[in-house]
Write a structure and sequence with these properties.
Shape: globular
Radius of gyration: 20 Å
Order of helices and strands: HHHHHHHHH
Structural class: mainly alpha
Number of helices: 9
Helix content: over 70%
Number of strands: 0
Length: 269
């Protein structure tokens, strides 16, 4: 592949990733609130003035405007450029790991790349939706389910299908049982059904082994962070959105889970 073509693909991936990240901000706010993602047009939440296209350029507009609305000078949340940048970075990582555009020696699978960027963008929406509202809109689960089915079609071997189907069933069943036990003891749900659906569809994408790695990251990392927050804020009985940690674990496992598992199995051998 010519160097000029490689550079063009890299630049295009990052730019489109940033633009999609800008659209994710709309989805994150409107979908959980049952609003249309098409109307009304993007506007300042304070003064309601429509945002012109030149004030809606990912990252760049935020810097030029100094993080403030052009009309009312109201402060624009740092979340907006952060989501744009995060999505652009995840798309770039997907391009690096699943194609040979950046590293010629890597295996190239454009279907994996496509599924990866859709999965990562959806996980970003789930992260902030659960953080803001403690719930996950059903449409995000459906998108991830479709991603998992595409992965099956891409590699329709018996072993691959078996691992992915086991990941789907076992992950969802595990969380469902854990919630039943918690509910029997504490008389209330400990895990939302949205989390059960999330680990199930993620298990279909990752397969049982990578899903276990994702759960390990989510549980250990989430446990440490929650212990720190509890010690600092000294709040007992407060509920925290667990899908926030699940999305991080799933993303990491999507990128490096296979390498980590193979490394661990080689040590055992």
């Amino acid at each position: 592949m010519e160097i000029a073509l490689r550079v063009a693909i890299i630049v295009l991936t990052i730019i489109v990733g940033l633009c999609v990240g800008s659209f994710l901000n709309v989805i994150i706010y409107r979908v959980p609130n049952g609003m249309s993602i098409a109307k009304p047009a993007s506007h300042c939440p304070k003064c309601k003035n429509p945002i012109k296209w030149y004030d809606n350029v990912p990252i760049l507009s935020y810097i030029i405007l100094g993080g403030k609305c052009r009309h009312c000078k109201g402060k624009i949340s740092l979340r907006y450029p952060s989501v744009e940048l995060l999505n652009g970075i995840l798309w770039f990582v997907s391009l690096t790991l699943f194609t040979n555009v950046i590293v010629p020696s890597f295996a190239c699978n454009w279907i994996k790349f496509g599924v990866s960027i859709v999965t990562c963008s959806t996980l970003i929406c789930i992260f902030f939706s659960d953080y803001d509202n403690m719930e996950i809109p059903e449409v995000f689960h459906l998108i991830l389910l479709l991603c998992g089915l595409v992965y099956l079609i891409d590699n329709p071997t018996f072993d691959n299908i078996l691992i992915k189907v086991i990941g789907f069933i076992a992950s969802g069943f595990l969380f469902y049982i854990v919630n039943l036990i918690y509910k029997a003891i504490h008389k209330r749900d400990g895990i939302g059904f949205g989390d059960v659906e999330l680990v199930a569809v993620a298990g279909l994408i990752l397969g049982i082994y990578q899903m276990l790695f994702a759960l390990l990251i989510a549980c250990v990392g989430g446990g440490i962070i929650l212990l720190i927050l509890s010690a600092i804020k000294k709040e007992k009985g407060r509920e925290y959105p667990f899908a926030v940690f699940l999305t991080i674990g799933i993303t990491i496992s999507l990128f490096v889970g296979e390498y980590v598992i193979n490394w661990y199995l080689n040590i055992l051998r």
